[in-house]
Amino acid sequence: MNGLLFQPISKLGVHLYSSCALAGGAGLLSHHLYFIRGFHVLNATRIACTHVLVFTLLLAGAAVENGFLSGARIAVAIFSSYLAALFLSIATYRLAFHPLRRFPGPFPAKLTKLYGPWLARNKRIGDEFRFLHQRHGHFVRVGPNEISISHIDALKQIHGLQTACSKKNNASYDVIQFKGEFNLDSITDHAEHRQRRKIWDKALSKTTALTYEAETRTVVKSWLAQLERLQGAEVDTSLYAKHIACDNMGRIGYSRDFRNIQGDGDSLMFDIIEITFRTMSKLGQLIWPLVLLFSLPRFGLQKKFEEVSVAMTEERLERHNDSEDLHDIMKLFIEDFLSSKPQAFRNRNILYADAQAIMVASTETIACALGFSFFFLARDAALRQQLREAIAPAHGRSFPGEFTMAYLQGIEFLDAVLNETLRMSTPVPLNGPRTTPPQGIEIGGTYIPGNVHIFTPPHVYHRNPEYFQQPDEFIADRWLTRPDLILDKRAFFPFSLGRYDCVGKSLALNVVRLTLAYTVWHYDFELAPGQTESAFWDGYVDQVVVKPAPLKCAFTRLRVPGVCG
Ligand code: HEM
Question: From ligand 1's centre to the CA of 234, what distance in Å?
C-alpha cells in the first residue's frame, strides 16, 4: 500500500501534483461526508488525533522512500492540499450555501468561529455584541452557525415554557462536567434537568432563602466589623464584594466559614472559582480548544478547583453523618444522595458537579451585583441618602437595631436601586446559547433555520434604547416614579427566563439587599481621592460573569446610624 502511494511521489513532479490533487479530493469529501453532517465539536480530540496520526504516517512513508527532508516536504505538500481543500470547501459553504448566509453580520464571523476569541480580545464581549446589534439590527450572525437576537419576541419564544429550543447539540454546556456528570446549568436533557432542578428549587425557594438569613447577617456583620477596623483607610469595595459573596457562599452552601472578609481565609479561593469561566471567556464561543484542554489531565488552578470542590463535598458529607442539623444548600443534595432511591444525585460525581455549581454560580454573580451597587452609591450622596430614608421604616421592625429580609423585601426604592444596577451592569451579559429545533423557529417575522445556536444577550436588551430610555444612565427612579423611561419591561431579565432561569435569584437579592441596607445605615462612603469613575468603568472585565474593577472608597461611620451629617 505504502509502495503504491509513495512510488509516484518519490518521482516528484507531475506525480506529486496528482497526489496533492488526490489529497484535495479527500479534503472535499471529508467536508461533505463528515464535517457538514451533524455535530462534531465534542469529537475534537478524536479528530485532532486522527489528523496527527494520518500526517505522521504520511511523513513516515514519504521519509522512508525519499529521505527525511524531501519526505517532509512531500508530506507537508500533500497534507496542506488536503487542509486547503477542506477549509476552502468549508469557507465556500459558510459564505454561499449555509442556511444563515443571508443574515447580516461581520464578514469574519460568517467564515470562522475564530472570530469569537477576536471579539473577546478586550474582555468586553457583552459590549461587542451590543455594537454588532447597533450596526446590524435585531438578528446578527456572530459565528458561522450562531445568531444573536435582540428582538423582544425572542425572549418568550426561546426561553418560554412552551419553547422548542433547547441546550442540546451545543458544546458550550457539554464541556462543563465533572468526570462525565453535568451540573444543573450544563444538563441538556429536559427530563434530567427537571429532576435535579426540583431539589435545587427546594434548597433555594423564596421561603428557604429566608432561612439562610442569619448566616448572611453574620457575614454582613463581619463586613461592618472589618470597616470598623479599617477606619480611615481606603477600602476596595470590589474586593470586599468578592469576600462577602465568597463567605456567604461558604456558609449557605456548605456551612463553612471561609473568613475572607477578616483576611485570614484562602486568598486563592476566588481565583480558583473563576478559572473555568476565565478560560472560556478568552475563547469567545469557540469550544473545541476547551474540549481538547479538558481531555488532558487537569493542571494548575483547574486542578485545584476540582480538588477544593471534592474536599469540601467530602467534608460536608462527613459532617452530615455526624449531625443532620446543619442547614445549607448541600444538605438537600446529600439527603437525596444518601436516600434509598435518589431522584437526582445518583452518584458522588453528580454531587461534586453541583458542589462546583454552588461555588461558581453564587459567588461571582453576587460579587458583581454588590461591586456595582457600591459604585453607583459611592458616586452619589443623594442616592445614598434616599436609600437610607427608604429603608428606615424597615429598621428594627423584627428585632431591635436590625434589618430583616422580611421587611427589606418590601422596600421599593431598594429594589429600584438593585434593578437599575442589574440593568446597567448585568452580571451575566450573554447568557448561555440555545439551539433551534430541527424545523427552525420564526421570531418577529424572521425565520431562523433548525439546529442553529442562538443568543439573547441580556446586556444588549438592558442597554437598548428601544426598551429603555436613556439606557446608559443610572436612573433608579425609572422603576418607580419615571415609568416612562421603561419602554418594555420584558427586556429586563438579569436572571434569565424560563425553565433554565436562575435558581438562586431570591437568595442573591436577599444577600445584596441586606448588605446594602446595613452598609448605608451605618456608614457614609464616597469615591476615595484619586479614584475616578472612568477608571472603574474602563477596568471591569467580562469573563462570562462580569468582574468589577477595584474601587477605592472612603468610609465614615455615622455617629447616629441612619442619619448622615
Ligand atoms: C446577582 C446574582 C445572580 C445573577 C445575576 C444570576 C444570573 C443567572 C443567569 C442569567 C442564569 C442563566 C444562565 C444561562 O441561561 O446560561 C443563571 C442560572 C443559574 N444560577 Fe444564577 N445568578 C445569580 C446568583 C445565583 C446564586 C446566588 C445561585 C446559587 C447557587 C445561582 C445559581 C444558578 C444556577 C444553579 C443556575 C442554573 C439554573 C438551571 O439551569 O436550572 N445563581 N443565573
Answer: 32
pLDDT digits (tens, 9 = 90+) for 248-304: 999 999 999 999 999 876 667 777 777 777 888 888 778 888 888 888 887 787 888
Tell me, in angstroms, the distance from the centre of ligand 1 to residue 365's CA: 8
Nearest to 516 by CA among 396, 379, 382, 371: 371
DSSP SS3 for 215: helix
Does residue 155 fall inside a structural domain? no
Q: Which of 97, 129, 164 is the last residue of a domain?
A: 97
Question: Which pLDDT does position 131 carry in this prediction?
Answer: 97
Q: Output the domain CATH number for residue 445.
A: 1.10.630.10
- Helix, strand, coil proportions of the chain in percent (round to 5)? 60, 10, 30
Last residue of a domain, one of 52, 79, 97: 97
Q: Are 516 and 377 in contact (CB under 8 A)?
A: yes
Tell me if ipTM is over 0.90. Answer: yes
Q: Would you say residue 120 lies in a domain?
A: no
| Owning domain of residue 37 | 2-97
Is residue 564 marked as binding?
no
* Residue to probe by mutation, ligand 1, list 158, 246, 248, 365, most atoms within 8 Å of CB: 365
Residue ID of nearest Cα to ligand 1 atom 37: 185
Structure confidence by residue, pLDDT tens digits, 345-356: 999 999 999 999
Which stretches of the chain score pLDDT less than 50?
1-6, 8-10
Domain count, the chain: 2
Nearest atom within ligand 1 for CA of residue 432: 16
> Looking at the domain assignment, is residue 482 inside a domain?
yes
Residue partners of 291: CB distance under 8 A and separation at least 6: 41, 42, 44, 45, 171, 175
The residue behind cell 437576537 is: 149
Tens digits of residue pLDDT in 354-382: 999 999 999 999 999 999 999 999 999 99
Nearest C-alpha to atom 42 of ligand 1 is from which residue? Answer: 504
422 is a domain residue:
yes
- Measured in Å, residue 184 CA sits from the centre of ligand 1 at 10
Question: For position 348, what pLDDT does the model report?
Answer: 96
Of all protein residues, the one whose alpha carbon is nearest to atom 40 of ligand 1 is 185
Our mutation pick for probing the ligand 1 site, out of 175, 500, 502, counting the most ligand atoms within 8 A of Cβ, is 502
Closest atom of ligand 1 to CA, residue 369: 1
End-to-end CA distance of the chain: 91
